[in-house]
Amino acid sequence: MRRKIIGLALAIGLTGALLGVLGTTGVWQDAAEWAGLDAAAATTSRTSPPPAQTSVEVVTVPDNPARPPNTPGPQPEPQLDKNGKPVCAVDPSYFDKKVDGLKDAAEQAWKRARQAAWEAGLTLCVHDGKRSTAAQQAEFDAALALHGSVAKARQYVLPPEQSLHVKGLAVDVQPRASAAWLERTRGEFGWCRRYANEPWHFEYSAGYQSGGCPELLPHP
């Protein structure tokens, strides 16, 4: 019995000494602080609602964004053949001639039509535009020699004084798909097909933009 009492007394004494050491070194205070924080966190988790979730839209921007569809931008300059002549981009057998010999209004209208065609996926090529009087006369003479009469030749080539090519108000359009596209614009750009036997030949008039294209004539 005495041994038990002595052992209990020793245990109590050791416990007291240990508590004193912990309090002196701060270990006890630190432990109490952590216990208090844990208790506070547990209480908060039981009583406070979770933070609201916010929706964030993530937008990915490509390093090199592509051009939007149907807006290819300015049409590139045509390639040149070995003789320095511009070649139609869709068919190397067609030369894409310059239109700077046309009347100013016709030239600007052609450039607008050309850009619209480019944005539609087509290339308008000028197979023939402004002609000199001598060039038109040579073509008419060749047609006269081929067909044997002025009346017959005029169905294919007009003499210089009547030709809108000479006046700078006509173009021959290549390739055929591009000419067909221009015809479907029905004068929107001031250019209209005029002859049933020449699907490539178009003439300019400012009135076509407001009044549309006139009926086709059978031939020049």
Mean pLDDT: 73
User: How far is the N terminus from the C terminus?
Assistant: 141 Å
Shape: globular
Spans of at least 5 consecutive residues with low confidence: 17-72
Secondary-structure-based class equals alpha+beta
Helix content: 40-55%
SSE pattern: HHEEHEHHHEHEEH
Report what the structure shows.
The longest helix has 24 residues, at 2-25. The protein is globular. By secondary structure, the protein is an alpha+beta fold. Strands 3-4-6-5 form a 4-stranded antiparallel sheet. It has a two-stranded antiparallel ribbon with strand order 1-2. Among the domains are: 2-44; 79-130 and 168-211, Muramoyl-pentapeptide Carboxypeptidase, domain 2. Helix content is 45%, strand content 11%. It has helices at 2-25, 27-47, 104-119, 133-147, 150-153, 164-167, 176-184, 207-211; strands at residues 79-80, 86-87, 125-128, 170-174, 191-195, 198-204. The termini are far apart. The chain has 8 helices and 6 strands, in the order ααββαβαααβαββα. A hairpin with a 2-residue loop joins strand 5 (191-195) and strand 6. Mean pLDDT is 73; it is low at 17-72.
What topology emerges from the helices and strands here?
Blueprint: H1 2-25, H2 27-47, E1 79-80, E2 86-87, H3 104-119, E3 125-128, H4 133-147, H5 150-153, H6 164-167, E4 170-174, H7 176-184, E5 191-195, E6 198-204, H8 207-211
Antiparallel strand pairs: 1-2, 3-4, 4-6, 5-6
